[in-house]
Structure formats: C-alpha cells, structure tokens
Amino acid sequence: MKFARYEVNGRSPKIGLVVDNELIDLSGVAPSMQAVINLSNEGMAMIAQHANRSSRLPLSEVKLLAPLLPRRNVMCLGKNYADHAHEMQKANDEPVELPKYPVVFTKATTAVSGPTDPVPFNPQLSEKMDYEVELALIIGKQGKNIPAEQAMEYVFGYMVLNDVTARDLQRQGKQFFKGKSLDGCCPTGPWIVTRDELPIPHDLEIRCLVNGEEKQASNTRNMIFDIPITIAYLSNGMTLLPGDIIATGTPDGVGAARTPPQFLRPGDVLTSIVEGVGELRNVVTAV
Asked: What's the whole-model pTM score?
C-alpha cells in the first residue's frame, strides 16, 4: 500500500490511500499517519475494505504534504555510500577510509517538509546549501536490541528524503545538527510505500537532479551499512519507536565535493527520486 498525507484547498490535512493516480480518503479509519503505522493486521484489513467502497479523488486535485510529522528527530546516516565517503574526505583533506561503524546524526523535526514544499534559502544563514537524496525508512513497531536478522520485521515502509544541508553551518562546530536542521530542509514523500511493496530495498536506483541535470546517480545496493545492520546498531541499548524516521545516507555527487563546489541557489528545482518509492520536486526559494 501507499499512504499519503494531503490537503484540499488548504483545509485540514487528511490521510489517504494512493491507488494508481487517485486518493482514497481514510479519515474515518485513521486520523493520522501515526495511527496508520500503529494499526494491527486487522486494522489494515479494515483499510482494504474501506478502500473498496469509498470514492476516489484524483491526485492532481490535492496537495501532498510531508507523509509523517515525526515525534522525535530524524535519524540519519552519514557517509553510508563508499564513493560519497571518499569524495567528502578528499574535499575536506581528510584521510580516505570507510567508516567502521554507522555515522549517525539527527535533523530536527521542524526541518521536515513535503514533496513539493519550497526549500528556504536565506543568505544571512547560509550560502552553501547542498542536496543529498536518500531512501528513508519508517519504523513500524517498538523495539530494542533488535537482531539484524529480524530487523526488517520492524520496518513499516519507505519514502524519499533529501537531507538538504547548510555546509557552512555544518562545519562551524563539531556536530552536524545545526547545519542539518534549518526549517524546511528535509523534504520527504511523496508518500509512504509499505514494506511489502519493496521486498528488496537494497536494489533501487537513487537519483538527484538540479534543474533537470543529474547530480547524483547510484543504487541502494551500494550502502556500506544496510538496513538490517543499521536498525540493529541504532536499537542496541536504545528503543526505536513506531514512526521513527531513519535516513539511510546519500550517494556521491553532492555539491560540496564538486570542483568547483556547486551549491543550490534561489530558483533551482531540486528533484529527488528513488525507484519504486517516488519523486520529490522542491524549488529553492529566497526568504
């Protein structure tokens, strides 16, 4: 299934089931995406029954919103593709080596935005805004000390995410948090694709384009730490909760590692694509 969060004519957000190019309103079954994630198998069966007898609305008539407003920070993996790890180490004159353990940082909940929302550009804050397309997963049930071989049972679904980063702010301190957490700098969506729709998430093409020009192109098979290892690592001694968002890292081709560097500017159209999941289209907008 594909679950979306949407609005019509600026009214209160609703939850819908995406079928082909149409939306089925699920307001009577699930008032929020968190409620959908919390549903049991019986609840999912209710959604299927509801879908069979409900009217449909064309996707073209709605505004898709961020599928999920997380209750706590988005957990992100840094340098989780070998080529990206190497390009950033070279750009920063660091030793070229792969991480031995997952590199984890977070983005504030207020950074999360939707699949067509503007990416704010404020030169007083940053003039080095960069793009990082990623596959994000959503945790479906609470777990701690999860073995890697059982980790996929804890995944509810997937969405596209762009870890837009203010590189100058990122490098001001020893932590990434500020440079990763500017408002509106975490476009997500366009919907959540449930785990059963993507039985093999480690063989998906992943791409990022700026103004139609391809900047990043790779495959999720190139992750250093795959999803089961990541979940096992994060849950070791730390409880993961339903609705937690985990971004699995970006491939090479980011603007900061190019010669010369290529950062986002107002008017740029940022397109983020993950095969089998969907596409984001966000315009960089001066504020």
From this structure: 0.95
